[in-house]
Write a structure and sequence with these properties.
Largest sheet: 10 strands, antiparallel
Number of helices: 18
Number of domains: 3
Mean pLDDT: 94
CATH topology of the largest domain: Glycosyltransferase
CATH class of the largest domain: Mainly Alpha
Strand content: 25-35%
Number of strands: 31
Low-confidence stretches: none
Length: about 750
């Protein structure tokens, strides 16, 4: 572990400014509220390396895909998550010299993200060329209570002089994406207006016509005294500002409080957008910074009251899990059914699109166990609403009769990824969506979901798999050719074990649901389909190492040099930044869990011995260069009682971005893997499962931990679980009797009661 920032249970702290780490820090200290978010760029001007980023949920640009003769079926565009209007801007200048941390001498610097309160705070002292020294304190947040509001308190204190200081709060829509092709600009200006102490900028995206209205108001204070000022106003294309000079007395704090509203046509009609933004920011201004801050902190307190995982005895582990939970809730709150969980959230622009298979495979379990069931339900309904598009996607590839292929990457249901092997081969994503439905039902008992939303999706997915399999005369079995599994360091392989297994399971589960649904739905399977599906289920081919319980990742896997990740020189890690793609594809090394992914999802289908044998075979060959990899290994390592390995990999997944293991934190954080980190503790170390509609808990605790505790929901009943080296304590916080298995023994807990068991 190589700590980039200080270890603190509730805070991320940077106590010295390092321009070489600034882009990493911009990602780490990002803030958001599920509706929009902002990288930790500085309010004042900064001329050093920086990735400016302000992002709005659901707003994207369809960058046209250009390919050659293989165009048929290829996605028409690659969706870019767009950098939008810079709303944090507050320029400061003294004697005509602009404040710029890449220019002035920095005498002190402290930046902290308080995850408990959701506040980003920065304090620093600089010396200007004139010798004048100032102290700056900035506090900002994206309100978790008012989802379209952000606020900044920006204080300036002259330390060794009195004199005029110029303040310039502004909105700047002339922004670009780091990943734009040919420096393409994605925005058009609709309108702008600026007045004394306020302004509004309205922009729209090219092609997709998403409209965004960003409004600001501000006030100016001498200590606790509200001052009357007379700013100059300025506007130009994509830009509005107020600017004013004020005489600042030595040792006295002056504060500019800036209020911002960010509204978009994701939530409002184009015709009311500007008026909504103006009203939102006016209401925020009237409420004032302290009220907004209190509301925001109260909202976070409510989240933490049920979502926190408390770890005693290991501050690094504690900080890691809270960092992950914090960013998950900043990214997705479940309030807006139109939004989903992007792989970078609001922390960066890498990976186009807003929705991957990560949502169902990794994020859904987190929300199932921590949030109201409606949140998980909305994530699944999001897919139901895109079923027609999934059928269209499959038709483009030659599938028919209602077969549905959900996209690898999407904003609106269309496939929008521009890598061939990802788009056409990594079809296992279909299975994750079906498993998400299964997982939701077993956690909530909401079988009504199947009739309204579930069966149509499951039938479309099963029809796809039935057509994607083909009968091998040589093997006398159904095979799956030309696929890529979760391990993307293997492309275009035959009979990827995980893909074959989850495809067969999808078909089998669809048969089960089809039989259980009584209503005569148009999506129900025909007799011909049922017969075909049953034949496939009984005759799927799975590659296996002869004489062992080891399931081979795909055909030909044993033809590779059987090396371990420990054989790779440290100077060549990560290999995706040092090796050619050809070399990676020919190597044995695994980017992320593949066979083990299947053993995790379908753990109850296999004996512990089979899981152990496959874990021991594959884990040494895994380089974990996908953020989604370590968490699966943690869960399985705990299952087979490899607690030291589980803890090692837990620290890797929980601190993946904090310690920048994969050297890519500057591009944004791995949001969807953060849910996997939560799973590492709850499903891994604590052994929480739902088997056959029955809750089970089989906990363990690492030697270095004194205790850990968390809350989960099961059948909408909250439970508090606390584990020490000697016992497990479960408290029923709900209103109904709960039955569950604890360490193999079935118990019942009355509402409000607590059960204690000795830890084995």
């Amino acid at each position: 572990m190589h700590n980039l920032f200080e270890i603190d249970p509730w805070k991320i702290i940077e106590s010295k400014f390092d321009p070489n780490k600034q882009q990493q820090a911009e990602s780490i200290f990002s803030i958001g509220n599920g509706s929009f978010g902002q990288r930790a760029n500085f309010e004042e001007q900064y001329s050093g390396p920086s990735l400016q980023g302000s992002y709005i949920g659901g707003v994207y640009y369809p960058d046209k895909t250009r390919v050659g003769w293989w165009k048929n079926g290829y996605p028409e565009y690659f969706a870019k998550v767009l950098n939008s209007t810079n709303w944090i801007g507050i320029d400061i200048s003294i004697d005509g010299e602009q404040l710029d941390l890449n220019v002035q001498q920095i005498k002190y610097f402290h930046r902290e993200l308080n995850m408990q309160t959701g506040l980003l705070k920065r304090t620093f002292r600089v010396v200007f060329g004139s010798g004048k020294e100032v102290e700056i304190e900035s506090i900002r947040f994206c309100s978790m209570a008012r989802e379209e509001i952000a606020a900044i308190s920006y204080s300036v204190t002259p330390l060794n002089f009195s004199g005029n200081v110029k303040f310039t709060p502004y909105l700047d829509g002339k922004v670009s994406n780091h990943d734009s092709n040919y420096d393409e600009f994605f925005w058009l200006e609709d309108s702008r207006k600026v007045d004394l102490q306020k302004g509004i900028l309205c922009t729209r995206t090219k092609k997709t016509d998403f409209c965004v209205a960003t409004a600001m108001r501000f006030s100016f204070w001498r200590e606790q005294e509200l001052l009357t000022i007379h700013p100059n106003i300025l506007q130009r294309d994509f830009y509005v500002e107020n600017n004013f000079e004020h005489y600042l007395e030595q040792g006295v704090r002056f504060t500019l409080k800036k209020y911002v509203a960010v509204t978009s046509t994701i939530n409002h009609s184009e015709f009311e957008l500007s008026a909504k933004a103006i009203k939102r920011v006016r209401d925020a201004y009237t409420s004032g910074f302290d009220v907004l801050r209190s509301e925001h902190e109260a909202a976070w307190a409510s989240i933490w009251s049920s979502a926190d995982i408390l770890i005693e005895g290991d501050d690094a582990a504690q900080q890691g899990i809270r960092f992950n939970i914090f960013h998950l809730y900043q990214t997705y709150t479940g309030k807006n059914a139109k939004l989903n969980i992007g792989p970078k959230g609001f922390t960066g622009e890498k990976y186009g699109g807003a929705t991957y298979w990560d949502t169902e495979a990794y994020c859904l379990p987190f929300y199932l166990k921590t949030a109201d069931p409606q949140v998980a339900r909305q994530l699944l309904i999001y897919r139901y609403k895109h079923l027609d598009r999934a059928i269209e996607n499959a038709e483009k590839l030659g599938f028919k009769d209602g077969a549905a292929l959900y996209p690898m990457v999407t904003m609106n249901g269309e496939e929008c990824h521009n890598e061939w092997e990802i788009t056409f081969e990594e079809i296992h994503r279909n299975g994750a969506i079906a498993f998400g439905i299964f997982n939701y039902i077993r956690h909530t008992g909401d079988t009504n979901y199947l009739e309204t939303y579930g069966l149509p999706v499951l039938a479309g997915i099963a029809r796809f798999w039935a057509q994607r399999f083909n009968w091998s005369e040589a093997k006398q079995a159904y095979v799956m050719l030309g696929v890529t599994g979760p391990n993307e360091y293997e492309n275009n392989v035959n009979n990827n074990w995980y893909t074959n297994y989850i495809a067969r399971w999808c078909i089998d589960y669809c048969l089960e649901v089809n039989a259980a649904v009584q209503n005569d739905l148009p999506e129900k399977l025909t007799k011909k389909e049922i017969d075909k599906f049953q034949h496939i289920v009984k005759n799927v081919y799975f590659p296996q190492l002869e004489g062992t319980n080891i399931y081979l990742q795909q055909d030909g896997f044993m033809d590779k040099d059987q090396l371990n990740a420990s054989d790779i020189p440290a100077a060549e890690r990560p290999i995706n930044q040092h090796w050619s793609w050809d070399r990676i594809l020919r190597s044995i090394f695994i980017k992320q869990a593949d066979v083990l992914q299947g053993l995790y999802l379908f753990e109850d289908h296999f004996s512990e011995e089979i899981i152990r044998e496959n874990f021991d075979f594959y884990e040494p060959k895994t380089v974990h260069e996908s953020s989604l990899s370590p968490c699966v290994h943690v869960i399985l390592a705990a299952k087979i009682k490899r607690l030291d390995k589980a803890l090692e990999l837990y620290l890797r997944t929980s601190r993946l971005d904090l310690d920048d293991y994969n050297h890519e934190a500057d591009e944004g954080l791995h949001i969807t893997s953060m849910a996997g980190t939560w799973m590492s503790v709850v499903e891994g170390l604590a052994g929480v499962r739902v088997y056959e509609n029955n809750l089970a808990i089989d906990p363990q605790i690492p030697q270095s931990w004194k205790s850990y505790s968390f809350q989960i929901r099961y059948r909408n009943q909250p439970l508090a679980v606390a584990i020490t080296s000697h016992k497990v304590k479960i408290t029923n916080l709900g209103s109904a009797l709960i039955s569950c298995d604890v360490a193999g023994a079935t118990i019942t807990i009355e509402a409000g009661a607590t059960h204690e068991s000795a830890l084995k």
